[in-house]
Amino acid sequence: MEEQHIQIEQALNHIQQLVGNIEKVIRGKQSQIRFILTALLAKGHILMEDNPGTGKTVMAKTLAHSIAGKFHDTSGVNFKRIQFTPDLLPMDLIGSHIFDDVRKEFLFKKGPLFCNVLLADEINRASPKVQSALLECMAENQITIGDATYPLEQLFFTIATQNPVEMEGTYPLPAAQLDRFFMKIYFGYVDEDTELDIYRDYLGIQDNLAHIQQVLSMEEVLLLQQEAEKVHLHDELLIAVRNIVTATRKHPDIVLGASTRSGITFLKCLKAYALVNGRTFATEDDLQQITHPVLDHRLIYRHKEAKQKALTAILDKEMERLSKAGISDK
Questions:
Q1: CB 306 within 8 A of CB 72
Q2: Is 186 in the same domain as 162?
Q3: Coil, strand or helix: which one is 330?
Q4: Where are the membrane-spanning stretches (predicted)?
């Protein structure tokens, strides 16, 4: 038991090292980095939306290069990048059967989905048919082709990037696909001072990416995923999640509210976010920080103006209730 506790303490320290490691390459994005690690430890996947050139792809590469492979393999985890384009086919992701002249039979050649960390770049530039090829692997960690089902790696994490839907040549992701992403974040531009620092040191940043250190092993990531499930949640926080989820179904400006599965995802992310921040218990602040990244993309709003206000109003009401409940005093 004590040895397990020491492993957890070391892994928690390594999370902080991992954040620092990524920040050597990705400047001024600490909150976004923590959200990405939250999705990873919650055994989920994350969707990042923003204009090209804000660092989304580099972020994914940096994370993958920071994690050592099985048994501390210095070559790192199996990282694959798929550039989604309009002419991409499902078999380009999943793989296909190829005839072997020697064996006189068809052999399955695995596609890039069989990896540990997948970067699905500009996912909304591919057709809905291709996007749907990701559904089973993201939800059930397996791929079915014909009569055969192939399990994916125990550590399988998808980082998808998408361009704003207003951009030319994009397809909106279907609701079922969006629901598979535990969180959706907007990467955004850095502030002016940070941007100036990047311009001054862009050669150093490129060098950091080329020589990124591996600060966390795959075994430690799997251990942290298990520990995230054990994070303590006060009953009032459980009630708060229930209240927020059910309130989205009743709000007049929300056409489609959050499902029960959304609520379970909410709880998983709440626990993982606490662990990413070095705690074995969740707080009201954790709830406030992750509500929008977890729920926003799952809701369908009546009009654009409601997107900025509806969920915020629900959250504010619940935070007021929690402050009166006095969790810290219990």
A1: no
A2: yes
A3: coil
A4: none
Q: Are residues 52 and 123 in the same domain?
A: yes
Around 225, how many Cα atoms within 13 Å sit in the side-chain half-sphere?
A: 18
229's tokens: 């499930």
Whether residues 235 and 199 share a domain: the answer is no
315 lies in which domain range?
231-329
Considering the domain architecture, whether residues 273 and 140 belong to the same structural domain is answered as no
Answer positive or negative: Cα dihedral of 185, 300, 269, 234. positive
Distance between CA atoms of residues 131 and 45, nearest Å? 14
Residues 6+ positions from 219 with CB-CB distance below 8 Å: 70, 71
- Does residue 193 sit in the same domain as residue 311? no
Residue where a domain terminates, one of 182, 206, 227: 227
DSSP per residue, 191-230: PHHHHHHHHHTHHHHHHHHHT----EEHHHHHHHHHHHTT
Q: For residue 261, what is the domain's CATH number? A: 1.10.8.80
247 in the same domain as 217: no
Per-residue pLDDT of the chain (330 residues), as tens digits, is 666 666 677 777 878 888 888 888 887 788 889 999 999 999 999 998 877 777 777 888 888 888 886 655 556 688 888 988 888 888 888 888 787 777 777 888 888 889 999 998 888 888 877 877 788 888 888 888 877 888 888 899 999 988 776 566 677 787 777 888 999 998 777 778 888 888 888 787 777 777 788 888 888 888 889 989 999 999 999 999 999 999 999 999 989 889 999 999 999 999 999 999 988 899 999 999 999 999 999 998 888 777 778 999 999 999 999 888 776 544
